[in-house]
Design goal:
Blueprint (H helix, E strand, L loop, with lengths): L1 H27 L2 H8 L5 H7 L4 E5 L3 H17 L4 E6 L2 H7 L7 E4 L5 H11 L3 E5 L5 H9 L4 E6 L5 H8 L4 H4 L4 E4 L2 H9 L7 E3 L14 H11 L6 E8 L3 H12 L6 E7 L5 H10 L4 E3 L15 E3 L6 H7 L2 E4 L12 H5 L4 E3 L7 H9 L3 E3 L3 H13 L1 H17 L3 H14 L1
Parallel strand pairs: 1-2, 1-4, 2-3, 4-5, 5-6, 6-7, 8-9, 8-12, 9-11, 10-11, 12-13, 13-14
């Protein structure tokens, strides 16, 4: 009965979701194409790719999950080159990241979780194994895959402080869904305990670690860095502060800190990277109201001269975060000065940059704890504390460098999740 109610809610939601995805798709030039895939309608060239191949289907809902999955995608393709590696996403921004990954043979939008859509999709793709990144669980999809005896593995699994009580409210309704999984590869002991408390069979739950620790730094030499600086028209002798994955309510705080910091460091230049690119024009407009000159990354090529310190570049493109962090002297990771739960701070550590983040890190609590313990990152309590810590680092470059080095060492010490996860997944592919 409960699943019939779930279906009814989804059908009612579809009345709004289809127009919503059409509208969002228009922003990315794939409106009709995206809605068709969400309804299980695929191009003929994809259907032809599926013929006679083993199919590995990896699902990563958005940008963060897609980036986290990159180390695993690389080793999956290396160990199983004959298999067709399909990556699905829910969001257009996740899809943008997917299109730039050479390991992926084909990428699709994840189907609506309506039973007839799910059945149609699985009839077409017929995956040999399904890999769900983090805690992306759709009841109809999971139960239908189980009915077809398709192995499903949850990788990089985590149960956040916020989501744990919500899952507990589902009670026994969650048990048959969790029982559909072949294995759970969890990030930490706490995540392992929580998934077992929710009903996952203990024998299927393993702590494999966090895939984010296995990220590899981008191969960029000094010549490429200088070329990128010129392309972005950054101030020649500026000190670059990159604030990544920012949310509504954070940009104002960061810009206030920026203006105060320039009183003691006039050469400071701010690069803002909003988490949702569709907000970028609004951010530029808000900065204009404060008489701050701001330029969208996508229009930098039209500038007739370099940026000056005191101006702001607002990044409305995707897939450049690591390069921007590489150019930075200091990095702040957003979603943490406002109660969003934080974002991946390890990307800055990957390129040896001192990373700062706010008090709201519920979604990355363990990573934040490890960074603090290793002195590889600084957690600030509010914007005033951010100003104080930034001031210290700007006045002590050697301390900033030490923090960046510590963060990189932390990554190296905690690697290995990819291989542990791969050994579990490969059992189903080899069979």
């Amino acid at each position: 009965m409960i699943y019939l109610l779930y279906d009814l809610i989804l059908y009612l939601s579809a009345l709004f979701l289809v127009p919503y995805y059409l509208f969002r798709g228009l922003r990315y030039g794939k409106a009709r194409h995206g809605v068709r895939e969400r309804l299980g309608i695929y191009a003929q060239d994809f259907r032809q790719l599926l013929e006679g191949r083993k199919i590995i289907w990896v699902h990563a809902v958005s940008v963060g999950e897609t980036r986290a999955a990159i180390p695993l995608l690389k080793v999956l393709k290396k160990k199983h080159p004959e298999a067709l590696l399909v990556l699905s996403n829910v969001t257009e921004t996740g899809r943008k990241i997917a299109t730039k990954l050479p390991e992926i043979d084909h990428y699709i939008f994840f189907p609506f979780d309506l039973r007839w859509v799910v059945r149609k999709t699985l009839n077409i793709i017929q995956p040999d194994v399904i890999i769900l990144v983090e805690t992306e669980i759709w009841p109809n999809f999971v139960l239908e895959a189980k009915s077809r005896n398709i192995p499903m593995v949850l990788v990089n699994g985590r149960i956040s402080d916020r989501s744990f009580p919500r899952y507990r409210m589902a009670g026994k309704l969650l048990v048959p869904i969790l029982d559909s999984f072949s294995d759970f590869c969890m990030q930490s002991e706490q995540d392992s305990r929580r998934i077992r408390h929710l009903g996952a069979a203990s024998g299927r739950v393993q702590v494999t670690g966090n895939l984010k620790f296995d990220m590899q730094p981008p191969a960029i030499d000094m010549t490429e860095l200088d070329a990128l600086k010129q392309e972005l028209k950054l101030p020649a002798n500026g000190r670059i502060w990159v604030a990544g994955s920012t949310h509504d309510g954070e940009e104002k705080q960061l810009v206030d800190v920026y203006q105060n910091l320039r009183k003691i460091c006039p050469e400071l230049f701010l690069v803002l990277v909003p988490r949702h690119p569709e907000r970028c024009r609004l951010v530029v407009d808000d900065l204009a109201k404060k008489d701050i000159a701001a330029t969208l990354r996508s229009t930098v090529s039209t500038k007739d001269k370099n940026f000056f310190p005191g101006e702001v570049m607002v990044v409305d493109t995707l897939g450049e975060m690591l390069k921007l962090y590489t150019l930075a002297d200091l990095v702040f990771v957003g979603g943490s000065l406002v109660p969003t739960g934080g974002h991946n701070v390890l990307e800055a550590s990957l390129v040896k940059k001192p990373v700062l983040f706010g008090p709201y890190m519920q979604n990355f609590k363990e990573i934040a704890r490890l960074l603090r313990a290793a002195h590889g990152g600084l957690q600030v309590m509010d914007s005033d504390d951010l100003y104080r810590q930034m001031k210290i680092l700007l006045e002590n470059p050697s301390e900033a460098e030490r923090i960046g080095d510590n963060g990189r060492h932390l990554l190296q010490e905690n690697q290995g999740a990819t291989e542990r996860t791969l050994s579990i997944i490969s059992r189903y592919i080899d069979d």
